[in-house]
What we know:
The chain is α/β, with parallel strands linked by helices and 303 residues long. It has twelve helices and nine strands. It binds N-carbamoyl-L-aspartate.
Amino acid sequence: MRHLMRPLDFSVEELDKLFDLASDIEKNPARYAHMCEGKKLATCFYEPSTRTRLSFESAMLNLGGSVLGFSDANSSSAAKGESVSDTIRVVSCFADICAMRHPKEGAPMVAASRSKIPVINAGDGGHHHPTQTLTDLLTIRSLKGRLDHFKIGLCGDLKFGRTVHSLINALARYESVEFVLISPDELRVPDYIIEMLNEKGISFKECTRLEEAIPELDLLYMTRVQKERFFNEEDYVRLKDYYVLDKKKMKLAKEDMLVLHPLPRVNEISVEVDEDPRAAYFKQVQYGVYVRMALILTLLELV
Ligand code: NCD
């Protein structure tokens, strides 16, 4: 039985297969509409989410399956002190596959070690968010036609943003991907990521000004400042509006530079950018459903 815990759990070849499947689902949804009939997905969310949980649920419903779960730790037995290990054993009796989000790093991994059904990490603290990475990769592959030979800028909260950590790890496996890490000093990418990039000899630079970096980018991945992971409100307030991507900055960018964002957006992308054909963040949400459908089929061994 297979779980998905980290962005590197699938090899590049396995990812290619998964993305081919997701693209086929996009083109021929009817072919997949009954593949999960009689199967159930449990969504166990101990931390807030709109997109990820609904995206998983929509994916399972599109496959003809059913969904059950909780979206708030307080409405589950966690509020009574139940451990994730016990919860997953119980959930294993009710469902065929589980997507779990937890504020504690490693919690879905503990669950997976006790589980009788495949577990998908739907975000664990500031650690990883592998299905967002699958979404990001499928979006890039579908809209750019490739996952290699480009320069990507990641901008915003690179310290606490788990989607950033997962995406850098994943893209580091492809040829000639260069990184521009744009953040305030306090929100720089963690050292272990810098060490990984250095070890692999991958080209990257760190800077603080978006205006300076934007003209050379093929892709810009914007992120929000992760309020819930700050230790004090004052720091958050000081940093939250550090970057605002607006029409003026978009004028400095290449004509085919894509703007991605895992969402939710707060202020970091002005709504006036939404009309720009380079804004791909809402398309990205749609790709998230296709890739989760492909993932569910793969982990349930139905393809
Ligand atoms: C992200 C997350 O939860 O890490 N959201 C998502 O799943 N699309 C990004 C965020 O919360 O900023």
